[in-house]
């Protein structure tokens, strides 16, 4: 069994709050990790350590900081197999998928190692006797609060961008993947001075204590309710809140598309990682002309996906997902596939296809963090756009269409950070977007995350008067 230790000012120790949480393997319920929860004084000590290390790290040259990230990336790559095993045991992702997502994290660290030293300000056209410039400076201490559904890749993005720009960090990994966070810290920490990276462990209250601490940025990837409470805490302290939160992404299937291909895309979007992806397909608006063939093909896809997906992260999430599905069925939706909790150990849930979903059902209105494809039939592309836009969330959206004008309308009109045409996943490296509405605020990834992690100083330098 793993023991998730906290890491404060260069030293490993067990949290002394007196509370201990145990993570069980969602595949078969065996205990995996013991996590002694950090106490309030330990959260404060981690923030103090990060504050103490901040001036020297800010003075460290960007290329030396980038070198530390490259070394950390190499260490993570070398341990990817071991880390993937821990991740799979804690959150159920198949090991090969876990390894892919760890390699995505390694790539992100290397990307920030390259981008950090080239992150530039600008010089200004001022008085000839002076030098005027705008420079990106580290903000100071960044609290990084991360989720379990892609625990290494998400953490690597925030840690990489924060550290390479000269900030120090207090990281709180998810309470559902603490050993993954502990092992990741063990691979990164040897490459930075004590105090530059600190890790505390615990659940929501520990995250809340960290978010309310005297830090400069709170970067949170996670659920919308947690993001909202962090934003409120930041309003109290003056820290900047950077939020990448939940989504309820629509998929529009237009008239005239190949229903078989569209069903393959829908299944990939809804069932990959057992639906536990922030940009998973959550609600599908399918044109009446292709609806029947599409839902038939989607049902066949669901049966095939049942063989390859892992369980949900735990039974708590499974209960939430199943409650949303059951409520939809009670309110008139039909489950063409899945929709039942299987007998046996673990937190397994089948790929589920619902038809006849109404806009006010939780499966359409809320985030459903599970393998659920909720569908509704529309009469026109116009109706699909209107219903897809009517959501509290605005993370991403996909449109499958052969019409260029529909594609153009989609990316211009849908209130979402990312709009994808004819592919549920994908995007060029270097892209970044603003989540809309309850999905968050700020750039949570990409080169623009370097801007978020820094503050601009305008400097005006004049020579002293002659004769001194
Ligand atoms: P969560 O918000 O419950 O937990 C995420 C982290 O926040 C954990 O470390 C948790 O302990 C902490 N936390 C919880 N309550 C807190 C509070 N009040 N104050 C401070 N910290 C708190 O989310 P989760 O269940 O771990 O992750 C799933 C959610 O994350 C989904 O909603 C998903 O869409 C979202 N997500 C979003 C993105 C994105 O890029 N937009 C990426 C991955 C996951």
Automatic annotation (TrEMBL):
Keyword Cell wall biogenesis/degradation in record: no
Name this polypeptide is given: Aldehyde dehydrogenase
Keyword Oxidoreductase among record annotations: yes
Domain Aldehyde dehydrogenase stretches: 12-457
Keywords tagged on the record: Oxidoreductase
InterPro entries: Ald_DH/histidinol_DH, Ald_DH_C, Ald_DH_CS_CYS, Ald_DH_N, Aldehyde_DH_dom
Gene3D superfamilies named among the record's database cross-references: Aldehyde Dehydrogenase, Chain A, domain 1, Aldehyde Dehydrogenase, Chain A, domain 2
Top-level lineage group: Bacteria
Transmembrane segment boundaries: none
PANTHER family attached to this UniProt entry: ALDEHYDE DEHYDROGENASE-RELATED (PTHR11699)
């Amino acid at each position: 069994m793993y023991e998730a230790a906290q890491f404060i000012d260069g030293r490993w120790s067990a949290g002394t709050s007196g509370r201990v949480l145990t993570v069980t393997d969602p595949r078969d319920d065996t205990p995996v990790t013991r996590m002694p929860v950090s106490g309030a004084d330990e959260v404060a000590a981690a923030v103090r350590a990060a504050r103490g290390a901040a001036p020297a790290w800010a003075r460290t040259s960007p290329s030396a900081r980038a070198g530390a990230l490259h070394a950390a990336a190499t260490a993570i790559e070398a341990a990817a197999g071991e880390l993937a095993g821990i991740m799979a045991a804690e959150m159920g992702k198949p090991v090969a998928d876990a390894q892919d997502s760890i390699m995505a994290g390694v790539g992100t660290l290397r990307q920030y190692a390259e981008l950090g030293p080239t992150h530039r300000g600008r010089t200004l056209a001022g008085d000839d006797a002076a030098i005027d410039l705008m420079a990106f400076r580290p903000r100071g201490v960044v609290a990084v609060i991360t989720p379990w559904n892609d625990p290494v890749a998400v953490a690597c993005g925030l840690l990489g961008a924060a550290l390479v720009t000269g900030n120090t960090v207090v990281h709180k990994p998810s309470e559902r993947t603490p050993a993954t966070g502990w092992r990741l810290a063990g691979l990164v920490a040897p490459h930075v001075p004590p105090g530059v990276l600190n890790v505390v462990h615990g659940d929501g209250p520990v995250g809340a204590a960290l978010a309310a601490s005297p830090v400069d940025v709170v970067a949170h990837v996670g659920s919308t309710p947690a993001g909202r409470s962090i934003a409120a805490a930041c309003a109290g302290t003056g820290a900047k809140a950077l939020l990448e939160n939940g989504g309820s992404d629509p998929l529009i299937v237009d008239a005239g598309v190949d229903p078989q291909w569209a069903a393959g895309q829908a299944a990939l979007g809804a069932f990959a990682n057992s639906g536990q992806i922030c940009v998973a397909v959550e609600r599908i608006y399918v044109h009446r002309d292709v609806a029947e063939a599409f839902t038939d093909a989607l049902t066949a896809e669901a049966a095939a996906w049942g063989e390859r997906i892992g369980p949900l992260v735990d039974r708590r999430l499974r209960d939430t997902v199943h409650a949303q599905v059951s409520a939809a069925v009670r309110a008139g939706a039909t489950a063409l596939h899945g929709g039942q909790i299987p007998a046996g150990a673990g937190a397994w849930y089948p790929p589920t296809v619902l038809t006849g979903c109404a806009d006010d059902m939780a499966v359409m209105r809320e985030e459903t963090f599970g393998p659920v494809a909720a569908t509704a039939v529309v009469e026109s592309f116009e109706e699909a756009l209107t219903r897809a836009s009517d959501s509290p969330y605005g993370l991403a959206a996909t449109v499958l269409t052969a019409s260029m004008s529909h594609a153009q309308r989609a990316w211009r009109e849908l209130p979402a950070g990312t709009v994808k045409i004819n592919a549920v996943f994908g995007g060029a490296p270097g892209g970044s977007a603003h989540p809309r509405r309850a999905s968050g605020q700020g750039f949570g990834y990409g080169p623009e995350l370097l801007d978020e992690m820094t503050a601009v100083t305008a400097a005006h330098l004049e020579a002293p008067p002659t004769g001194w």
